[in-house]
Target: Thiosulfate dehydrogenase [quinone] large subunit
Amino acid sequence: MFSFNQWLRENKVAMWILTVLRVYIGYDWMTHGWSKLTGGFQASGFLAGAVGKATGENPTVQAWWGTFLEKFAVPNAGLFDFIIPLGEFLVGLGLILGCFTTLAALMALVMNFAFLFSGTVSTNAQLVLMQIFLVVAGANAGKIGLDHWVLPYLRGLFSRNKGNDTKDTPTISANHKTA
Ligand SMILES: COC1=C(OC)C(=O)C(C/C=C(\C)CC/C=C(\C)CC/C=C(\C)CC/C=C(\C)CC/C=C(\C)CC/C=C(\C)CC/C=C(\C)CC/C=C(\C)CC/C=C(\C)CCC=C(C)C)=C(C)C1=O
Model:
């Protein structure tokens, strides 16, 4: 039976479409990150505004997220001045190069949802939808990219001496000499 998920994960045509999608999304993240890194960026104003949206009868910002912003993000705004521009830039770079593609897409989702929870729709919802395709596709989304080499390298690193590697298994060879 045809499975769309399997098609995303294994098909060659899907691999090319995902590559175009990945580079497009990556370029969007990287340019936003770069302009914040070079032009300066302060999260405090936005964060205070988001806290203000957590009140009223039908608040845009959910109470638990409002509490997180008020108690953690606002007092540590300097951390977000740094991690948001860096995160956006690195996520963009990872997606463009196809390096740790799935992890980069997941971190991108974390940021999109943080912005959505804070009451900004903007391009976040459409990025979320596109990035879900990248995550479901898994390795196929990074095959035309550094993941083509990085993933097998990591697999080798973590599966050494496990699996079907026989070099550590003692065997008695034909010319085995006994004393
Ligand atoms: C449209 O949207 C929007 C924006 O945005 C454009 C915005 O700004 C903003 C404005 C935002 C603010 C004002 C801030 C708001 C802040 C909050 C709401 C506070 C809460 C926020 C959070 C909880 C989010 C925190 C952020 C996180 C978790 C992201 C952190 C991410 C990272 C640090 C980066 C992760 C990156 C990865 C995993 C990719 C990794 C890949 C690479 C780095 C590639 C590197 C490749 C190389 C260097 C090449 C060489 C490498 C090789 C060859 C590999 C070798 C391999 C080996 C195995 C050796 C809004 C509102 C918005 O609405």
Summary: Residues 32, 43, 46, 73, 80, 83-84, 86-88, 90-91, 93-94, 97, 99-100, 103-104, 107, 110-111, 114-115, 118, 120, 122-124, 146, 150, 153-154 surround ubiquinone-10 (CB under 6 Å).
